Amino acid sequence: MLHDVESEVTGAVWKVLLQAGAVVSEGDVIMILESMKMEIPVEAPVSGTLHSIAVQPEDQVEEDQILAVIQS
Questions:
Q1: What percent of the chain has pLDDT over 90?
Q2: Among 22, 31, 54, 64, who pairs with 16 as Cys (CB 3.0-4.6 Å)?
Q3: What pLDDT score does 55 carry?
Q4: What distance in Å separates the CA atoms of residue 22 and residue 5, rounded to the nearest whole number?
């Protein structure tokens, strides 16, 4: 089953910590967004394998935009 990882804020991708194929546990930080000078961690909502990453550092993202997909 595929699970979307969505942005909670509008901002920019500051750092991508994991790559596709990485095994993640629920709560693991996948990437960090920057919004209004704050760093916002994007955590895995479920455990599984990181199927894909849809953004790169410095990309602008909107609230509810899909950032990554996890296969559980």
A1: 100
A2: 31
A3: 98
A4: 14
Cα dist. 51→33, 34, 38, 39, 63 in Å?
20, 23, 27, 24, 21
Identify which of 44, 55, 69 has the alpha carbon closest to the alpha carbon of residue 12. Answer: 55
CATH code of 44's domain: 2.40.50.100
User: Using one digit for the tens of pLDDT, what is the confidence trace for 38-57?
Assistant: 999 999 999 999 999 999 99
Boundaries of domain holding 27 = 2-71
Pairing type for strands 11-16 and 2-6 reads unpaired
The domain tally of the chain equals 1
In whole angstroms, give the CA distance from residue 36 to residue 38: 5
For residue 7, give the 3-state DSSP assignment.
coil
